[in-house]
Amino acid sequence: MVTPWPPARPHWLLVALSTAGAPASTRVTAWRRLRSLGALYLQQSVCVLPASTQARAAVEALAARVRGEGGSVRIVEITVTDPAEHDALVAELQDARNTEYGEVLERFGAFFAELEHETARGRTTYEELEESEADLDRFRTWLAKIEARDYFAAARGEAVRAELAQAERALANFAALTMDAEDVGARPPASEPRQTSRPDLEPTHGAGRD
Cis before residue 6, ω within 30 degrees of 0? Predict the structure, then answer.
């Protein structure tokens, strides 16, 4: 049976990390990995994040790497017993995710504008379709990364998912226009109607008088 996340009173991972004695790149790697997991920094080199199964496995893998490169890491699983403090941590994490979701929503505007612009110009080509598909794939990847660290279902996530669904529909329409345009271009020109000679309508050049 899968345990739902988050539980009523989730546990947290408190991570204290030092890269003294390790290469400079270790500090950057550790910081980027913890941020990608949605860690909330309490002070320099000390952060917390919900102790989900995935987060715990990722933090332990990071700790092994940092230690292997000469640094040190301490991971402590804790519970926050003060409801107000717990709610404050959750709110900070939700605010961070809402900010990220907001950035995605802003970028969608350019995506829709580009499709409309190319359609208006009559540039419904396969090359434009491929470029827009690549853009949409980047949106999906970006959204998936944010969702993976959205432990408490930040409110703007639903808006982004709805916008993504709308973008997929818009791209499907653009693809249909592209296919229709290529079909038209591939058709042989329609043959001109055969001219039937009708003597009663032809001019009588050179006809003599009686």
Answer: yes
